[in-house]
Amino acid sequence: MGTFTMPSLGADMEAGILVEWLKQPGEELSHGDIIAVVETDKGAIEVEVFEDGRLDRLLVEPGTKVPVGTPLAEIAGSGTQAQASPPPEPHVPADAPVETAPPAPPVSARPEAEPVSSIAPIFGAGERISPAARKLAYDKELDLNALQGTGPDGAIILADVQKAAGLAAGGANRTRPRNLAPMRRAIAAAMSRSKREIPHYYLCHSFDVSAAREWLDAFNGGKPPAERLVFSALTLKAVALAVSEFPEFNGFYGQNGFSASRSIHVGIAIALRGGGLAAPAIHNTDRLSLPELMLAMNDLVSRTRAGGFRSSEISDPTVTVSSLGERGVEALLPIIYPPQVAIIGFGSVVQRAWATGGAVQVRPVMCATLAADHRASDGHRGALLLRRIEELLSHPEGL
Amino acid sequence: MSEPAELSYREAVRSAIRNAMQDDPRVFLMGEDVGHYGGCYAVSKGLLDEFGPDRIRDTPLSESAFTGAGIGAAMGGMRPIVEIMTCNFSLLALDQIMNNAATLRHMSGGQVSVPLVIRMATGGGRQLGAQHSHSLEGWYAHIPGIRVLAPATVEDAGGMLAPALADPDPVLIFENALLYNDTARVDGLAKADIDHAAVRREGTDISLITYGGSLGKTLAAAELLEQVGISAEVLDLRVLRPLDEEAILGSVARTRRCVVVDEGWRSGSISAEVMARISESGFWNLDAPLARVCSEEVPIPYAKHLEDAALPNTDKIVQAVRKLLGR
C-alpha cells in the first residue's frame, strides 16, 4: 500500500488545491500516469504518479486546499510489479529548515530526499499503444485513454486513432481557466527570495550569429512549416551542451550548498497570454536532436499556455533560459529561479555595424547574458560558459 | 556472347568469374580445390582448363595463408578472388580479413588499398553439421573497412562480382549454398548495384526484411499471407554493410510493421542491427512491435528434423506476421 501525497511543485509551494481527480478508485495506475489536477500559485498542474498499482481510496475531496505532504489517496501495490523508481526531488527548498515531511507509511508514494540527479525513465506498464497511434493522437489532440484498442491483446493501434480522429474532430481541446493573481504572488515570492538570498553576478556577451542564422535558413528551406526550426531551439541546445561542460551552472543550491545535477533539464521561460510567466523544463535537453527539441518546445509551450504542464516539468529545471525573441529588446538581465544557480538570457537578434576582418559590416548580432549564483560559481567560468555558447552557435551543424 | 535463357546461381557466379578474368588480366581465382576439383560447390568447374594453373590456383588447406596471399596480391596491384569453402572456415582467416584487409587503407593514411574479393558459402539446410552450416555474414557486417554482399538471386549472383572487383576496398560475398541450384531466366549478366537494398515484392501491411538464403522462404511466406488478406512487402537487403538504411526506413514508413528474417542467430545479429536502426529513426512510424525470425540459438544440428526445426522457414515467418497483426 502506498500513499499519494500533495506534491511540492516549487520551492515556495506550501499548499495546493485539489481541483480534480483524473483517476477513480479501482483504476490501475502506471508510473507516469496523470492522476489529478492541483491548483497552485502557478496555475493548474497535472500531477503524475510514480508507482504502479491500483487506486484504492481517495482521501481528499476536489476543491480542498491542503498542505504539501498531506495524503491525498491510497494506492494498492500491484503485487507483481516492483515499485517504480521514485521521482527526482531536486527541489529542496533552501529556506525550509524542516521539510514538510509526509507521514511515513511503509511504502511511500513520494519518498523524500533522494539524489538530485537522474530522471527515472518512464515505462508505461500495462498500456499498449503503438508509437504511430500515439503520434497521431498527439497531433490530433485525442485522449488515448478514451479509445478501445483493436490490435493484438487490445493494443491501441493507428487504425483505432484514425477512426476516432474522424469522429472526434474538434472539441477535444482541454484548456483550463486561469486565475492570474496567485501566479503573480508566486512570481513575487520566488523572485523576492532570489534577490534576497542569491548573490547574483551578471555577464554580457554580444556576438555575430550569422552562421546560426544561415544554417537555420538552409535547414528550413523547402520544409513544411511543421518541420521548421526556430532560432531559440538552437540557443536552447547550445545552452544544454555548454552547461554539460560547466556543471557549476547546472543544479541546485540547497541547505548543504551547491549540488550539480547529472541530467540537464533546461527550463524555458514562457510568457503566458494575458500575463504571467512559467518556466517548465524540457527533460534531458542535451540529448535531444534539434527536431526533437523543437517538438518538445512546441508541446511544452502549447500545454503551458493551456495550463497543462506536468508536475515533473515544473519542479525540476536544472538551469533556465529566457529568450526575448523577435519583438524584444537587445538584452535582458534575468533573475535566477531558486534553487537553481544560473539563468541565461538571450536578447533579440539585431542588425548591427560589426567590425570583422578589419572592415565594418552589417551583421545579425545577439547579446547573451548570464546571471549566476556567486556561491556556486565565479565570473571567470561564467565568461567561459558564454564564450562556449557563442562557439557552439558558430558551428550550428554540430548542435 | 551467347547467354543461356535459363541460368543457375552456380552458373551465374562461374560466368561472372569467367567474364572478369577475360576482361582483366589482373584477376585470378585462388582457394581450396578450386582448380582440379572444380570447387567444392562446383562453381569453378572447367575454369582451370580454360585459364590454366597460374590464374586458377589450388591452395594448401590454410585459410589464413591464402587469404593473406590474396591481400598481398591485391596490395601489389592484382585483383584476386579468394574462395573460402564455408564461412565457418573463414574464421581461420579472420585475422587477415579484419586486422589486415579491413584496416590497411586506414592505417596507411590512404596510401595502400586492398582491392580484394572474398567469396564464401554460408548457411545451413544441407545436413552438413555444425562445422559447415552457420551464417556468419552478420559478424562480418560489424567490421568497418569492408563491404559485405549477400546475393539472393541469380541476377545478383552474376552481377555483383564485377562491381565488387572494381571496389578499391575488400568486398566479401556470401553465397548461401542452398541457392546454387536455383535457376532463373536472365537476359545477360548485367552489372548489379552493390549499394542498395531492393524491394522484391510490394505490399502495404508489413515489411519482411531479409537477405540471402532466406529471400525465397520469405517470398513464399508473402504469397501465403496474401491468401489470408495480408499484404506483405519483401525487402532484400542485398548489402549487409553498409546497410541501406533509407530503404529499410522507407519500407517501414510505408507499412508501419516489420519482421526481419535472418538465418543468423538473433543475439548480436544483423537482424538486431536492422531493428535497432528502425527503433532509432523510424520509431514514430511503428504500429506494432518489431519482430524477427532467426535460427534457433544452437549449433546447427546434423539430424534432418532438428536442422529443419532450427532454421527459419516459411511457416515460422507466416506465424510471426499473423501474431504481430493479430489476425
Automatic annotation (TrEMBL), chain A:
MF GO annotations: acetyltransferase activity; lipoic acid binding
Report the GO terms under cellular component: cytoplasm
Which co-factor is required?
(R)-lipoate
Question: What's the EC number here?
Answer: 2.3.1.-
Q: Which UniProt keywords apply?
A: Acyltransferase, Lipoyl, Transferase
Chain spans, region Disordered: 78-114
Which enzyme class, named as a word? transferase
Peripheral subunit-binding (PSBD) domain location, by residue? Answer: 128-165
Task: Identify the residues that the record assigns to the Lipoyl-binding domain, covering every copy.
Answer: 1-76
Family membership: Belongs to the 2-oxoacid dehydrogenase family.
Subunit architecture:
Forms a 24-polypeptide structural core with octahedral symmetry.
The identity of this protein, by name, is Dihydrolipoamide acetyltransferase component of pyruvate dehydrogenase complex
Species of the source: Pontixanthobacter luteolus
TrEMBL record, chain B:
UniProt keyword annotations, A-Z: Oxidoreductase, Thiamine pyrophosphate
Q: Which InterPro entries match?
A: THDP-binding, Transketo_C/PFOR_II, Transketolase-like_Pyr-bd, Transketolase_C
Which cofactors is this protein said to need? thiamine diphosphate
Provide the Transketolase-like pyrimidine-binding domain boundaries.
7-182
Q: Which GO terms describe its molecular function?
A: oxidoreductase activity
Entry keyword annotation includes Disulfide bond: no
Name the Pfam families on file.
Answer: Transket_pyr, Transketolase_C
**Which NCBIfam families does this UniProt record tie to the protein?**
PRK09212.1
Provide the protein name.
Alpha-ketoacid dehydrogenase subunit beta
The source organism is Pontixanthobacter luteolus
List the top taxonomic levels of the source.
Bacteria, Pseudomonadati, Pseudomonadota, Alphaproteobacteria, Sphingomonadales
